[in-house]
Amino acid sequence: MMTTYEALADPTRRHILDLLRERPHLVGELVMLLDLSQPLISKHLRVLREGGLVHVRQDAQRRWYELNPEPLVELDNWLGPYRHLWAERYDRLESLLDELQEEEKNHGKT
Amino acid sequence: MGKLKVNAEPGSHAIVMSRDFNAPRELVFKAYTDAALIPRWWGPNGVTTTVDTMEVKKGGLWRYVQRDDQGGEYAFHGVYHDIVAPERLVYTFEFEGMPGHVLLETISFEDHGGKTTLIDTLVAQTLEARDGMVDSGMEQGASESWDRFETLLQTL
Questions:
Q1: Which of A86, A88, A97 sits opposite B17 (nearest CB)?
Q2: How much is the ipTM here?
Q3: Distance in angstroms (rounded) separating the CA atoms of residues B131 and A30
Q4: Do B153 and A92 touch (CB under 8 A)?
Q5: Distance, in angstroms, between B83 CA and closest chain A CA?
Q6: How many alpha carbons lie under 13 Å from residue A68 in its C-beta half-sphere?
Q7: CA distance linking residue B130 with residue B132, whole number of Å
């Protein structure tokens, strides 16, 4: 059973999710939009289903793939720390270094 | 002073970041190894970082816990491998929210006439893990679709 993270660790699957967040899609639509074979799209959709990221809604003859928001909210809590971690913390490090050097200078004056 | 440069070659397990600081490397190294200083910078805006453990010696443990204002808690930990003041730190890094994905982090501090170039190399265990970090928007300028994705998630 793939974890949500592993289901997301594929650019094609992320592309599928991007499309599903606009609206639900049929398999055939995804095949056309991504220009990939139906078996390959189906395989990716299976992984996304097992990762809890999408579900199927049956509507008469048609099967719509829809996004499940809940695991992504959880995952975003994980992505969040990474997403902002680097640039912001280096800025904070720079501010701290400026402060420390200022403190050192002032300490030297007294 | 500096702009963060990020390099993540396709097919590589590594992310390499570099940034210049207008401070001597002894001080930059200190900011990385002093438990009193870590909470003052080691995290994104809007979270507070506390040092749970920090044994700055070969084989020593480190663990930091971050808390945001919604009660979310994120803990990170690892083990120090090499500590060479003021040139280099090598340690493992794991986010407790995602156990089993360990990174090896090497930080080098290069002296350039009293200023420091810091080079941070992160190596993931798999290509998928590395790509996951890159695509999560670690670089400045996260891809637009993932910004919109995040906006959608805020509304849910």
A1: A86
A2: 0.77
A3: 23
A4: no
A5: 20
A6: 16
A7: 5
Answer whether B27 sits within 8 Å of A100, measured CB to CB: yes
Chain B contact for A103 (CB, 8 A cutoff): no
Average pLDDT for runs of 10 along chain A of length 110: 66 86 92 95 93 90 88 54 64 92 81
pLDDT attached to residue A72: 65
Mean pLDDT of the region B52-80: 94
Task: Give every CB contact of residue B6 below 8 A, 6+ residues apart in sequence.
Answer: A86, B15, B16, B17, B138, B139, B140
CB B6 within 8 A of CB B139: yes
Contact criterion met (CB below 8 Å) for B94 and A78: no
CA gap B141, B120 in Å, rounded: 18
Task: Calculate the CA B138 to chain-centre distance.
Answer: 10
Contact B27 A86 (CB under 8 A): no
Query: CA distances (Å), B89 to each of B58, B120, B124, B155, in order?
Result: 10, 10, 17, 41
Pairs across A and B, CB distance < 8 A: 110
> Could you identify the residue written with the tokens 């928001």?
A69
Q: Which chain B residues have a beta carbon less than 8 Å from that of A5?
A: 98, 101, 132
Residue B92, beta-bridge partner list = B104
Tell me the C-alpha distance between B74 and B5, whole Å: 25
